Amino acid sequence: MSRLDIKTPSQAQAVVDQLYRSVERRIAASPPGLCPIDMALNFLNLCHAQTCGKCAPCRIGLGQLSNMLQAVLDGEAEMRAIHRIEVTAQAIVDTADCAIGINAAQLVLMGLKGFRDDYEEHILRHRCLGGLKNPVPCVALCPAGVDIPGYIALINAGRYDDAVRLVRKDNPFPTACAYICEHPCEARCRRNMVDDPVNIRGLKRYAVDHAGDVPQPSCAPSTGKTVAVVGGGPGGLSAAYYLSLMGHKVTVYEKQKMLGGMLRYGIPSYRFPREKLDAEIASILSLGIEVKTEVDVGTDPSLDDLRRQYDCLYLSIGAHTDKKTGIPGEDSHGVVSAVELLRHIGDGEMPDFTGMNVVVIGGGNVAMDVTRSAIRLGSKKVSCVYRRRQADMTAQQEEVEGAIAEGAEILTLQAPLRIEANEAGNVAALWTQPQVIGEVDAMGRPRPTTADVEPKRIPADLIIVAIGQGIETHGFEQIGVKIQRGGTLLADASTQLPDVEGVFAGGDCVTGPATVIRAIAAGKAAAANIDVYLGFNHEIEADISIPTPDLSDLRPRGRINTTVRDASERKHDFQCIECGFTGEEAEKESSRCLRCDHFGYGIFKGGRVDKW
């Protein structure tokens, strides 16, 4: 008789695999705001169940840790328990034989560092600091707090204009976000527990494309107060929008020729058509906002001039200065910054790259934007050089895949070394040092180190540097604005600048380069706080009835994704590459929403949060 068997998956193993997938989905759908100690305990118990039990640190130590955490949650622990938990977890990290026990204990140590206040609150006052302030995951994760279940229900009911009105209550750029938002709202969608998250951005795109011309609401009576907004990007225009609705007189100062900020000068029109941007800005300005373009605030006029002229000032300048690589040869003719290139494209000045070898340095969304733009400008070959792996790129995965489909070459694990120039001083090549991937860094990404191989020469007629942007802060110090180490402005959580009366700031100039929706959220917060500073307490409302939930079909279904134009066609122009939903697709996808605003935690917390 044979001593060996052919291993085939058993029914029991299939059930176990399904249970693991179910646990993974539930973890993915966990809303922000849960008790961190309770979450740590559950992860710890899961890890404890996975250990083999051969070594004492795992078999006994993890069980002891679990008991200690449970005592904290039950209000039975004393303050010295925190020290015991830390010592026990560290002992397991130092002595466990496998990664399961080590990582489980490390998770507890991380929690102690990050949530020590929660431990103390449980022990001293028997209460939890973690609160489900907004129990609907998609709304909680939207920086602007948009009522996502509400507008999805309106889309499902065919009320697209009302859906746009509801979005505008918290975000005056529904069209922009429908086309280019990174949709953080989908990350914890509870539909993950059933199948896949709802395609929220795709549904918003369908609504704005089919709503027609939706008029803006009427402004409140004039307050007689004046506000100057410095920066005509999404953050500045958002603040101007809400302040105007509140009845304040707003003037926007913009350094460039046209409004839009990075929506115009950072995002190519193949992602967000210019006519859509112009229409959205015109709609916002219809509230009576005054605009002054090609004005360099800080020079003429100075910030002091604006402070004397207006009752309040909001600084919302974007990250429009380029960062240098610092490698030899960077001053050669033919080395340009991504910011400079995208600015020219935004102004309609299209350079001609016909027949050129273009090399892009960087791995973020801006790097992908200039890579794909260079292809459309006639380049013979476009190579994107990145010092980490493709999986470590900060660009959205669909952007990377789109660039590859259009013919871009992604050269990973290549660190720029120097730029080679010919006798005339023109770029000839980029030299890179191959890398080998190593230990994980503080950001959770494996750190590259120099590989023991010869440098690589990449021929180039043009090199585009896309390694980040900086903030131009000249003229700010004259009024006492504090500049932080990273070159950003120091502002508190209410967007007000400390020690500078009547001046607020938000967006990229405070956080550093971030997403459009975060700039919009900063503008919304600034408008509310400026309104209070001026002595008012206006609230933005949208008197829209939300359809009653109908969850008659909860069977798992596939997520419907938007499609894109064929790569061989789209790479020759700057027309929009994404195709929106059909009516049938929008109806099916919107019906997948579980309406967490009405069921689940939502109903216990009072349902939808209507307060602005």
Task: Describe it.
- It is built from 23 helices and 18 strands.
- A hairpin with a 5-residue loop joins strand 10 (414-421) and strand 11 (427-440).
- Helix content is 39%, strand content 13%.
- With 612 residues, it is of the alpha/beta class.
Shape designation: globular
* Mean pLDDT, all residues: 89
Total beta strand runs = 18
Sheet-strand content, in percent, reads 5-15%
Low-confidence stretches: none
The helix tally amounts to: 23
For the biggest sheet, the summary is: 5 strands, parallel
**Secondary-structure-derived class:** alpha/beta
SSE topology:
Layout: H1 11-28, H2 36-50, H3 56-73, H4 80-95, H5 99-114, H6 116-125, H7 137-141, H8 148-156, H9 160-168, H10 174-180, H11 200-210, E1 226-230, H12 234-245, E2 249-253, H13 262-265, H14 274-285, E3 290-292, H15 303-309, E4 312-315, E5 321-322, E6 335-337, H16 338-346, E7 357-361, H17 365-376, E8 381-385, H18 397-405, E9 409-411, E10 414-421, E11 427-440, E12 446-450, E13 456-459, E14 462-465, E15 469-470, E16 503-505, H19 508-511, H20 516-533, E17 563-564, H21 567-570, E18 578-579, H22 583-590, H23 601-604
Parallel strand pairs: 1-2, 1-4, 2-3, 4-16, 6-14, 7-8, 7-14, 8-9
Antiparallel strand pairs: 5-15, 10-11, 11-12, 11-13, 17-18
Helix pairs in contact: 2-3, 2-5, 3-4, 3-5, 4-5, 8-9, 8-11, 8-22, 9-11, 10-11, 11-22, 12-20, 16-17, 17-18
